[in-house]
Each structure stands twice: as structure tokens, then as C-alpha cells.
Amino acid sequence: MFDKQRLLELVSQNEQELLDLTAKLLQIPSENPDGDTREISTFILEYLRTNGIEAKTYEPDPNRFNIVASVGPKTGKTLIYCGHSDTVPVGDLEQWDFSPFSGEIKDGYLLGRGASDMKAGLAGLIFSMVILKRYDVPLKGELVLAIVPDEESGGDFGVPWLLDEGIITGDGCLIAEPSSELNPTIGQKGSCWFKLTVNGVPAHGSLAPFVGKNAIVDAIRAIERIRTVTDLAIQAPAELKELLQVSNEYLLENERAETRGVFEKITCNIGTIQGGTSANVVADKCVVNIDCRLPFGITNEETMVYIKQELDQLDIDYTIESFGFKSSANYTPAENPVCRAIVDNISYVLKEHAYGVLQWACSDARHFRVHDIPVLQYGPAELDTIHGFNEKVQVKQVINCAKVYTLAAIDFLNE
């Protein structure tokens, strides 16, 4: 067994390399949707190969390819370390106080789009594998690194493809998605994204509402009905009572009291609305993209049945089409070995009590659970900046997470 303190010393000795790696990832644009992640993937490939780790690439899409690498023997258990290289778009550049592709360190923070979600965590996974390889740390099993280019827009070309094709499988998985320092996410809500299309009858705008049928007005009525999903009383399974209680207490302890109950309710976000052709034309079409997140106790199908029942009470011409994220709530028990390996080493590194909680969003973790692979998420983050302007992450968190990743791989594979 490799001494834990010795491993921590090795990470500390090489921490500048970790920060330089993170900075470089931040400096390479990899926005999604409709992005091209070839540049960042090519950089990662070269970094791995420079450090003696050969990786394979898998290309389900011309502009996006997956990277899979491994260290350790294939005779024991397999642990998957997974991260995505894509980010959400940077948005309005005028709203940023620094370049979204900065990668600089200022006041103890690394700056740039993807700093928290999740290039810093991804860098930590890559760096952890390199450290284990560089110093010939003995492993009784295989550590697999899976880097995917397509998570932020639904992930069709990433994790689910790798799993469905049988390219990766394992006894446990860690995804370096953003989390709080002491609380990895061991479960998550389900997701129900859909597009509502409302059709109207065009006419001259000067005669509305006497003639024509305005699709935008009907869409507003439809939205009001759809948003009533948040009022549904949903009963979670009895075995999740403790996890739900712990997760709600976590919200209170982290000054998120306004979100208490989010794990037991459906949330509903009206994301985009597009309708009409001109101010003086009664709109003949309105398209609304909607994101609902589902708690334990209700399925995607049951949610859509309720929504359609509500809309059918209105005198409107509409269609609904699912897209993007679609899943039911899911979790990995806290006592599972992969959860224990991460949680125990968070406590070891930070010298504080760590425990797993639920996540109010969702991620690639759902795909691993569909394939019966226990999974949790833990990564460095400044949570309030995720998907917003001025995204950043604390340098000390980046380093501490890399320490946890390195120690957890040893504990899980060598137990």
C-alpha cells in the first residue's frame, strides 16, 4: 500500500502543474451546444501521451470525440473517473469583468468559463491519473479516465454512447461535476425537457383580438397551466427519508434556505419563447422550451400525462415534443464503496466531516446508474458562478479535489 501522506506530498509538489493544466483548459473555447471541442480534446490527448499514458479516441460526431485512457491492471476492480470538456456558452461578453477564456489566477481564484463546471475538476482527474502513473503507485485494479465532449446539451455523443457501446464499464464511477467542498452529490432529480408548439391563425394586427387566433396569447395561457406542476404533492419512497432530510439540512447550513423543499417538488423553468413574425401580424406560431426537474416519486411519463391533461382543458392548438435531458430521479446508496472512498478521503484531506447529498439538477451520473454502475459527483466549484457571468473557482479547492481523487483511487482499487 502506498502511504497516503506520501501521495499528498506528491500532489503538493506538483500543484503548479495542476494549475497550469487547468488554466490551459480554460483558455481553449469549448462551448456547447453547436460547439467544436476538437481543440481541447487534442490538447488533452497530447498531455496524456507526454506523460506516458496512451489514450484511445471514439468519434460518434465529426466535431466531438471521446477520450478513454487507463492505468493499472485489468485483473481487479475498475474505477471510472469521468469528466466533460464542453461548457455552456459564454453569453454577453459585455457582462464579464474578465475574459471568459482568461485562465488567469487572481485573488486566489482561477477565472474563466468552465472554471467550476467543470474544467477544474476535469484537470484534477487528468492530473490524478498522471501522478499515479508518474510515480508508479501500485494499483490492484484499473483506473479508467473517460473524457466526453457533449454533456451540456444532453450528452448524446458522450457518456451514454460510451456505455451503450460497451466501451467503458466499471465497479464504480466518480464524475468531477461541481459540488460543495464537504458534500459530494450521491443522487439527483430527474429531468423532463420538452418543446411546446402552439399554433394560431394569422390576421392583421390592427384587428386583434376580433380576428385571427394569437399563438403567443394561447402560449401564455398554456404556460400558466404547465407551471402548476410545481404545486403537485409527491410522495418520495420511504427508504429516501434520511437522505432527503440530510439534503434539506445541507441547504439550510449553506444559506440556501429559500430552496428548502426543492428535492420534493417539481421545478419548472420557461427557458425560451419564440413567436410571431411582426408587431402588426397576429402570431401564427409560438414555440416554448421548458425544463422541469423531477423529484423521487414521479416519472417523466406521469409528469407529461399531467401537463397534457391541463392543456387539453384549454381551447388551443398545440403539440409537445421531448428533447434534451430525460430521466427519473436516481441515487447511489451512501454506504456503497465508491461513495465511501470519496467521502472518507474528503474528510481525510479537509479534516472535517463530509457526507453525501442530493443534487437538484442532473448530469451524466444518471447514465451510469442506468447501467448499474454506482456513481457520485465531486468537484471544485464556486457554486454561485456556475453557468453565469464571471465564472471562477478557488485555487485551494482545485488542489484539494485532486488530492481526494488520488487517494480515493487507491482506497477503492486496493481494498
Automatic annotation (TrEMBL):
Its EC number is 3.5.1.18. Pathway: Amino-acid biosynthesis; L-lysine biosynthesis via DAP pathway; LL-2,6-diaminopimelate from (S)-tetrahydrodipicolinate (succinylase route): step 3/3. Its cofactor is Co(2+); Zn(2+). InterPro entries: ArgE/DapE (IPR010182), ArgE/DapE_CS (IPR001261), Bact_exopeptidase_dim_dom (IPR036264), Peptidase_M20 (IPR002933), Peptidase_M20_dimer (IPR011650), Peptidase_M20A (IPR050072). It holds the Pfam family Peptidase_M20. The keyword Hydrolase applies. Residues 186-317 form the Peptidase M20 dimerisation domain. PROSITE patterns: ARGE_DAPE_CPG2_2 (PS00759). It catalyses: N-succinyl-(2S,6S)-2,6-diaminopimelate + H2O = (2S,6S)-2,6-diaminopimelate + succinate. Keywords: Cobalt, Hydrolase, Metal-binding, Zinc. Belongs to the peptidase M20A family. NCBIfam families: DapE-ArgE. PANTHER family: ACETYLORNITHINE DEACETYLASE, ARGE_DAPE-RELATED DEACYLASE. This is Probable succinyl-diaminopimelate desuccinylase. The lineage of its organism: Bacteria, Bacillati, Bacillota, Bacilli, Lactobacillales.
